[in-house]
Amino acid sequence: MTGFLKELKQALRRLWKTPGFTLAALIVLALGIGANTAIFSIVNGVLLRPFPYRHPDRLVQLYHVPPAKQFPGIDTFPLSAANYLDWERQNDVFDSSAIYSFTSLRMTGSGDPKVLQGSRVETSFFPTLEAQPLLGRMILPGDEQPGHEHVIVLSHKLWKSDFGGNRDIVGKNVELNGQAYTVIGVMPSDFDKPSYAFFWTPLVWDPAEKGVRGEHHFYALARLKPGVSIAEAQANLGTIAARLAQQYPADDAGWGSKVIGLREDTVSDVRKPLFILLGAVVFVLLIACANMANLILAKTLDRRKEIAIRTALGANRARIIAHVLTEAILMSIAGGALGLIVAQYGTKIVVDFFGSNLPRVQEISVDGTVLAFTFGIAVLTGIVAGAWPAWRMSKADPQDALKQGGRTDAASGGRRTRNALVVVEVALSLVLLVGAGLLIRTLWNLRGVNPGFEPEHVLTMSVGVAETDYSTPEQEWAFLDEVLRRVRALPGMKAAGVTDSLPLTGGGSIQPVAVEGQPAVDMSHQPEVGVRVVSPGLMDAMRIPLMRGRRFSESDTATSNQVLIISEAMARQFWPNENPIGKRLALTFSSDKMREVVGVIGNVKDEGLDSKAPESMVYYPMSQLTWPSERFGKFHSFPLQMAVRTEMNPADATAGIRAAIHAVSANTPILDVKTMDDWVSESIAPQRFNMILLATFAGLALLLASVGIYGVLAYAVRRRVREIGVRMALGAQIEDVLRMILVEGLKPTLAGVAIGLAAAVALSRVLSTLVFGVKATDVTTFATVSVILVSVGLLASILPAYRATRVDPLQTLRDE
Question: Are 455 and 679 in contact (CB under 8 A)?
């Protein structure tokens, strides 16, 4: 311990005496370790940290698997009520299970009205998760009985934001949809199942609803019995699903089941991008290690005579290695401390800008696990960066080092090592730059995709229409019609309409259809299409092109001819060589009434700009909704979306539109006010997230690589001043010296580019699922990145080459 403390004190003294070296090393390490810590804190919070439930590994999510012919490429689907109840009764692998669904309620009585998203849950929901409330109690059996169902459990975020964290809130009433709900509990901050829920209310369903098999709008979770694996649960549920398909072929033929672990279900969409980003920052750290190793090697070569004297005086190889490693590790720990500051700000920036794209975002923090990771990676970095220089110096011949020509010999041997480290830096940088280039191309391609409408000058907002406000669909449509009439009358308004789901948002519903003139089949075998409810004016506001027929008009009422509009993709699917105008079909879930196709519009990107196949879509006129009000309410669980095309800046139209809506109903909440351009931007947010972070790390890698090339050449010129002076004294021209130094800089650069290209091709499959409109082995991207790296290598070589030409040959000869 005494020897270690002495070595530590000497290392601190040496670092203090070389402030330039120390500062450069600390900056390199802070950037490398800080970037790794920031991304690890995100990976830890999203992917690694345990869920806040007991035995989370036993929690699973349950799904239907739809028939492949009806739903190509879709392997998970919401449940039907009757099938879930059969799964619950017949399984022997679950300790408990619970069904839940999305709902929204309008809250009034405390400030401006607002629409809150929440979940209707079975009484077994919280016990299945083994969750406990922070305050009060959970939903219990009996709460779902008619007359007792107006109770609510608040999320921690709603409790804090709207009720100020008042611990006396339990037992008090809140006004939702015009009715009093009693607050019975508040959940802790780490409970977020489902992630969108601001509240939970009892799931109230009658026997008729429990018997429905054809409609799929529920979700379910379960807790496995101890010792039961997911594979065993899948086999058990698969057997039950096959039995139900035989018992109820009209509804269940071709429908299967799927059991997914809760963690997998929550993070599967982001696991691969996050691990790619983690791999990217590891590359950055390796480049930082290479830079650090170059700095340490240069410093130890400068101290070669001192180390030789230590060896001659009796220091053994282990002592020399410890001598060099202590300094490297000490510096790495200091760099790790600075890296924590970088990570703290970096993590906050990522969460602030991209948190909506990440699940479990509330779990992201720089906690004890992250601190341990940072300390471990700092020590490891010091060992990796200092190991080779330490080993190299421990093997040096002290007699050779003490000779007058030892410096030249050392420079020659060290140059090969330093060049090898530059090759590594350039190769790793190229891999990152290729990945960033492909994602930049992806984002560029997505921005060039035609969404099927014109997003410019369109303002959108959600209009919270509660189910309890109107007893019939006709009354609800009368309200919306009056709102649209007032909005269209405002100055500068060109068109306005409402829908249950805007393009690019992936909402609406999927329903089976029966086509007139085609053989009648059971609902389970009927083709499925997307269904969107729209008002007259919506397609004009979005400027969706009309290909054939007409749009909806004010004459399409509940008592007029029942009509539909379809997309081009649907026309090709059902009537490939015919004119679809005048053809008839029925939406099975809505009614058995045949409706006439009166128009065909262009295909619209509904799920996102990166969706490849055009979607078959049916547009249903909102003015002709005639089924019971409760069915209508469930049909548009989300608030209705209004789209208004303006001649002015859309933001300037917001106040007038709000006033027009509140003139009809002062209690109608208006939320999510944004332009259609904002929706387009949000639709590519995941790709933007991946691109920005990978491009940032690639830029950091490029900076570190260029610093590495510059450092190697600057050191080489400094060590070879005598050689260069002698060459110039013997007749070498400035051009010859420039060429010599530039070639020396370009050799490791070109070697690194070659190795990096091979590595990038080998790793191209990793990015294949994240790119759009470009191949993962795109030649243009690879060539552009190669040119950039060679150019950076050339630029990094210019200043050392210029300094080499300033060597005075006469002064050099005098020194000799």
Answer: yes
- 85's enclosing H/E stretch is helix 81-90
Q: Which residues contact 221 (CB under 8 A, 6 or more apart)?
A: 59, 60, 61, 62, 97, 98, 100, 125, 128, 129, 193, 262
Q: E strands, 395-488, where?
A: 458-463
Question: Read out DSSP for 587-614?
Answer: ETTT-S--EEEEEEE-----S-TT--SP
| Residue 603, Ramachandran bin (φ over 0: left; ψ between -120 and 50: alpha; else beta) | beta
d(CA 337, CA 330) in angstroms, rounded, equals 11
SS (H, E, C) 57-82: HHEEEEEEECCCCCCCCCCCECECHH
Per-residue model confidence (pLDDT) at position 636 = 38
Give me the residue label for tokens 């930082």. 288
Helix (H, G, I), strand (E, B) or coil at 515: strand
What local confidence, expressed as pLDDT, does residue 304 receive? 65
In Å, how far are 480, 485, 552, 633, 733 from 473, measured between CA atoms?
Answer: 11, 18, 18, 9, 91
- Cβ–Cβ contacts within 10 Å for residue 247, how many? 10
Give which of 728, 693, 783 is closest to 432, Cα–Cα: 693
Threshold 0.85, pTM exceeds: no
pLDDT per position as a tens digit, 163-191:
999 999 999 999 888 789 999 999 998 89
- The C-alpha angle with vertex 12 and arms to 7 and 18, in degrees rounded to 5, equals 125
Owner of token pair 């694996």: 229
Distance CA 579, CA 589 (A): 26
CA distance 486 to 546: 26
Strand, helix or coil at 204?
A: coil
Q: What is the maximum alpha-carbon separation in the chain?
A: 108
How deeply is 194 buried, as exposed, middle or buried, from its count of CB atoms within 10 A (0-12, 13-18, 19+)? Answer: middle
d(C-alpha 113, C-alpha 107), whole Å: 6
Query: Which whole-number Å values give the CA distances from 734 to 714, 803, 810, in the listed order?
Result: 17, 11, 15
Q: Is the dihedral of CA 49, 52, 57, 63 positive or negative?
A: negative
Report the alpha-carbon angle 66-593-577, nearest 5: 70
Whole-number Å distance between alpha carbons of 297 and 324: 10
Asked if 675 and 650 touch (Cβ cutoff 8 Å), the reply is: yes
Between the CA of residue 225 and those of 53, 92, 177, what are the distances in Å? 15, 9, 40
| Two structure tokens written together for 427 | 């190769």
Span 707-717, mean pLDDT? 76
d(CA 680, CA 271) in angstroms, rounded, equals 24
Q: Check if the beta carbon of residue 516 is closer than 8 Å to that of residue 593.
A: no
Ramachandran area for residue 316 (φ above 0: left; ψ -120 to 50: alpha; else beta):
beta
CB atoms near residue 275 (< 10 Å): 14
From residue 713, how far is each of 252, 386, 726, 754, 802 by CA, in Å?
72, 20, 19, 20, 11
Q: Determine the 3-state secondary structure of 259 from DSSP.
A: strand
- Give DSSP secondary structure letters for 12-57: HHHHHH-HHHHHHHHHHHHHHHHHHHHHHHHHIIIIISPPSSSSGG
The closest of 449, 479, 454, 508 to 650, measured between CA atoms, is: 454
- CA–CA distances in Å: residue 294 to residues 24, 257, 683, 712, 713: 12, 57, 44, 7, 11
Of 368, 273, 429, the C-alpha closest to 770 is: 273
**DSSP H/E element including 413:** helix 406-447
How far apart are the C-alpha atoms of 329 and 383, rounded to whole Å? Answer: 6
Q: Note the pLDDT tens digit of each residue in 358-372.
A: 888 888 888 888 888
Helix (H, G, I), strand (E, B), or coil: what is residue 526? Answer: coil
- Please, what is the Cα angle at 423 between 417 and 425, to 5 degrees? 105
Local confidence band at 511 (pLDDT 50, 70, 90 cut-offs): confident
